[in-house]
Give the backbone structure.
Amino acid sequence: MRKITVTAAALTLVFAAALFVMAGCKKDDKTLKVGATPVPHAEMLAEIEDDLAAQGIKLQVIEFTDYVTPNTALISGDIDANFFQHIPYLESNSEWTEKLVSAFGVHIEPFGLYSRKYKSLAELPQDATIAIPNDPSNGGRALLLLQDNGLVTLKPDAGLEATVLDITVNPKNLKFSALEAAQLPRSLEDVDAACINGNYALDAGLSPVNDSIIIEDADSPYVNIVVVRKGSENDPRIQALRGALTSAKIKNFINNKWQDGSVVAIF
């Protein structure tokens, strides 16, 4: 009889533990972990935290200051989505394209050329040193910006991932220094000019519209996207995130906070 009582008690404990685990899993299913760079991505996500909470989803924003770790964390399952990159960057790595996918687009951050020393392209001297991002997609983006403004000419088939080896005409004999994108604002003290991504420019207190020497036009293909693991596109939490980040509330937030056009909504 005692043996049966102990067994029943044990079963009761196991059942209670199972209920606890199930409850914990259910709670975790309502948590959405999103990796983002601080400006402007994390700022936008902060605006919709209450909106998602009203739908029973707890938004947890994990901030990253580089462009590689957020995709690594997403592939490993440490986060559920990330919000910092554009499609050309996502497509620059075969592992990323194999395992990750764009869920939806939100905005454009115009890419610009900045200088602490010169106010215009005409002032850039011969043999000037230009810092550009060292990843293929943003390095190519920088060179295409320079080509669009007559500073260099690239091979016709260079594409979005053009490199300095694709330069065919360089009238000012510009020199190039490839740096991690996050380091580019700091490089302005050491180089003649730097091509800087919009989020890092904003984070450094620079206005892409007002402080850049040249800036991308409205036809930029570099829309900032929310990325998820393949197969997660229809996750209800991701769909809720999509609705919140492409809402009239966020469009108004973007238009009011970045009235100079430093961030432009695409919806």
The longest strand covers residues 100-108. The mean pLDDT is 90. The chain has two domains: 2-109+222-265, 112-215. Residues 2-29 form the longest helix (28 residues).
